[in-house]
Amino acid sequence: MISEPAAQSAAAPDMDRIVRTYGNAVLRMCFLYLKDTHLAEDASQETFLKVYRSYAQFDGSAGEKTWIMRIAINVCKDYLRSAWNRRVNVVEALNDIPVMQEYPHEDDTLLREIMRLKPKYKEVILLFYYQDMKICEIARILDAPESTVSVRLKRARDQLKKRLEGWYDKENEPRRSSD
Predict the structure, then answer these.
(1) What CATH number should be reported for the domain whose range is 11-104?
(2) How far is the CA of 26 from the CAs of 65, 70, 89, 125, 176, in angstroms?
(3) Which of 114, 145, 163, 175 is the most buried (most CB within 10 A)?
(4) Selecting from 1.10.10.10, 3.30.360.10, 2.60.40.10, 3.40.50.970, what CATH number does the domain 107-167 have?
């Protein structure tokens, strides 16, 4: 008699709970990465399929959210590397971001500048500020040392500060240039 592998005999993950808990965060992250609603939905779905298929390998050394977000980022990177994506110019559709729909009159200048950052800077900003993750969690997701994540975060902030200079000051009023 052939015994069933341990991974297949393990209890199936509670996908209802996982999708309910992390679904919006994964979809938002995928959209911010891919800048396309339909691709983000596909990437989100693929992320949860991968979570389902590989849940038995989840060892708990990182938090569940950290593990799932790492899968989502890797799926998005695969989409961006695909031959189809290299041939097609994906239209930026920031108005489709779920968060932006809740606040239609909000200025999206900051988000647009974040999206213009190099991927290594964009991902740390998105994970730190939009997913409320700690540097140690981001380091696990990106498989990078915490010091590297800290440096990337600082450089990203510096670039954003330079790009947004004059757009917004500490008193919430536009800066006036001194003649």
Answers:
(1) 1.10.1740.10
(2) 9, 10, 23, 15, 40
(3) 114
(4) 1.10.10.10
Question: In sequence order, which ranges of the chain are alpha helices (DSSP H)?
Answer: 6-9, 15-34, 37-54, 64-81, 83-87, 98-102, 109-116, 119-125, 135-142, 146-163
**What gap in Å lies between CA 168 and CA 19, rounded to an integer?**
37
Structure confidence by residue, pLDDT tens digits, 132-158: 888 998 888 888 899 999 999 999 999
The pTM assigned to this predicted structure is: 0.56
CB-based contact 83:37 (threshold 8 Å): no
Distance CA(111)–CA(94), nearest Å, equals 8
